[in-house]
Amino acid sequence: xxxxxxxxxxxxxxxxxxxxxxxxxxxxxxxxxxxxxxxxxxxxxxxxxxxxxxxxxxxxxxxxxxxxxxxxxxxxxxxxxxxxxxxxxxxxxxxxxxxxxxxxxxxxxxxxxxxxxxxxxxxxxxxxxxxxxxxxxxxxxxxxxxxxxxxxxxxxxxxxxxxxxxxxxxxxxxxxxxxxxxxxxxxxxxxxxxxxxxxxxxxxxxxxxxxxxxxxxx
Amino acid sequence: xxxxxxxxxxxxxxxxxxxxxxxxxxxxxxxxxxxxxxxxxxxxxxxxxxxxxxxxxxxxxxxxxxxxxxxxxxxxxxxxxxxxxxxxxxxxxxxxxxxxxxxxxxxxxxxxxxxxxxxxxxxxxxxxxxxxxxxxxxxxxxxxxxxxxxxxxxxxxxxxxxxxxxxxxxxxxxxxxxxxxxxxxxxxxxxxxxxxxxxxxxxxxxxxxxxxxxxxxx
Amino acid sequence: xxxxxxxxxxxxxxxxxxxxxxxxxxxxxxxxxxxxxxxxxxxxxxxxxxxxxxxxxxxxxxxxxxxxxxxxxxxxxxxxxxxxxxxxxxxxxxxxxxxxxxxxxxxxxxxxxxxxxxxxxxxxxxxxxxxxxxxxxxxxxxxxxxxxxxxxxxxxxxxxxxxxxxxxxxxxxxxxxxxxxxxxxxxxxxxxxxxxxxxxxxxxxxxxxxxxxxxxxx
Lengths: 218, 218, 218
Fold this sequence. Notes:
The structure is a homotrimer. By secondary structure, chain A is mainly alpha-helical.
């Protein structure tokens, strides 16, 4: 198993990445539709939600070429997805699509956390920095999407655990890396933990504590 | 002609770039005035509208030195322009100035599209990536201006063809480049197409289709 | 004195930097609390306010490693500060804390202006570019904080001198650098000028002129 597992995981990872990218891009399309953006704006916001987090990580880490420069097929796929969504999605589809996308989005949260953290560890960065880059990869696509749509980023304001799942998954990867686990196992653990926590948070309706300090204002 | 054309075009291009930069900077000044920014904010937003797109492209492509680091005279010029606009522009000037600036803005859209796309092609990037960098160059100065002014970017929400003109102009350049046209002719074609489409869109009041999916919400 | 002054200044500078970073981070915590962000959002906005300006400068200048990658202890300290602030700060503390933080914030404005300008001068950049990078270092942490919190950046809209103090302090450093003053003296002059102007602006309630052009709109 130790030799075929990485190969199998490689294929599984590609499928999971495609699924997660679809979920991230559709979150941008739905947000853009709600804000009544035009067709161009919806495609831009969809692409930003899908690729913004990894791009910001690469710019901060000074890694080139960017993922979508090296693999432009993902740009074509995302563009096609956004156009198809605009052609076939109706207003009554927005809410059910958003609910359905929670699950692949949770997969993406785990996967992008693990890949971002691993890339930073490979570059020799200390644990907290690697965890931070994992969070940037997984969460900042949605943050940029919300900033362009003129909203406070949902990941910071809806009191649902999202970035915190990425944070904990990242630390799991750092711990496994420090303990010299095989890399594929460490990634699997981290992605599974982040995705699992997010899934549990949705299913069990977990909330982040509200800060009492903010209560009496506005 | 084949030898003097590039020389003449070089001078024409400089004049067109200066005109376009004035239009972009003034769009920032006007937007800042509407949002009641103070003098510092207006200069920052003017500069962001003028140089933000090219700077974002250079950061994403990891090109240095940045344009305005290499040619700081453009910073001085833009600063002087913003201060002069604040001294001499009155509230009754805002709307007529904005209307008058549509035409140099259309010139800038074409020119910055062509230069951004060409730079990416020269760096060996695939077609869709080059077109994307052309759009970033031409459109994201205005996007950053609107984000700082706490508005949904106009380029994505006013249902007027803007980024799409840049998109089509960029593809024209990629096609001409692939067909081994002389570079100055390819740039002229792309800039002319993007600027021409934008001009036609203004004159003929073209609209991007609204997306019905968004209709019943909010 | 000429030999011990730099050593003493080095220690004073570290203390001043820590104080200023606390003030910047707390400005993010307070803004996040007002916007009712959750605990994760408050920590992110606190960190962005503290480190965003220097990070943006380093990305624009293509300097690596980033400050907080090289010294991750500052990340831990900021995280601890944000959590402590959330545990112990109550709503009645928000306004007094914000007022108290004006003074260390003024120290930070001067210090970050001087360090950002000096770094750009060391890289051989022309005066206006160096001054601009000093302003980015000192001011854009707060700008990013306000953008994520969906506000027009306060530095551009509250008609109080803030960025302009940084601008003038930066030029003082450029002038001293050109006159071949010892570096520590030039930095002390620039930081003192920017901090002093800001302090005077608060104490004497200085205002930036409003632009009459904007008056009749909205």
